[in-house]
Design a protein that fits this description.
Oligomer: single chain
Mean pLDDT: 88
Low-confidence stretches: none
Helix content: over 70%
Radius of gyration: 17 Å
Distance between the termini: 55 Å
Strand content: under 5%
Number of helices: 5
């Protein structure tokens, strides 16, 4: 009975944390960029990252635990700055050049390396948990490290691709 009750509680709290982190992130993005397009693009990147994190947990044969339930909100918290970096650089480059193609190239050129190292450092930091003797920490380390790097590639591919089809800011 206790195990079932704990599982139900973890599931409810995980849903609450994911919803709260996405709603708060959406409000922050909307305040910063004053654009629903930028907000929805960022939330799409983050949503794909969250789905991939659940997929990674399942594909690796792990169960949702108290610690693994923190991975989706972690992906949201790490994914939103990626989007802010890319979108901010795109808007800055657009103001400098007035050319969308040049702005996209400048955005990827300048911010690609920066976000790569930010995400790589975060992924290594969380992946260190995989070196411990505790099984739950190992699972958390593997899934968090893999998905933080995957989130970088999602951002790097999806944001420029979508921005190339949207009208200029």
């Amino acid at each position: 009975h206790i195990r079932t009750e704990l599982s139900v509680r973890i599931l409810k709290e995980m849903r609450m944390f994911i919803a709260a982190s996405i709603i708060l992130s959406a409000l922050i993005l909307l305040i910063f960029f004053r654009s629903f397009t930028a907000m929805w693009l960022s939330l799409t990147v983050v949503f794909i990252g969250v789905i991939w994190s659940f997929a990674t947990i399942h594909l690796m044969g792990f169960k949702i635990s108290v610690l693994n339930a923190l991975i989706p909100p972690l992906i949201v918290v790490i994914g939103v700055p990626n989007c802010i970096y890319f979108l901010n650089k795109f808007h800055t480059a657009w103001n400098e050049t007035g050319d969308k193609k040049k702005s996209l190239v400048m955005m990827v050129d300048k911010m690609g390396v920066v976000t790569l190292f930010c995400n790589l450092a975060a992924a290594i930091g969380f992946a260190v948990f995989a070196l411990t003797q505790c099984q739950i920490l190992k699972e958390f380390g593997y899934v968090a490290g893999i998905n933080i790097l995957a989130l970088f590639f999602i951002s790097l591919v999806l944001i420029p691709a979508v921005l190339s089809y949207l009208p200029p800011p």
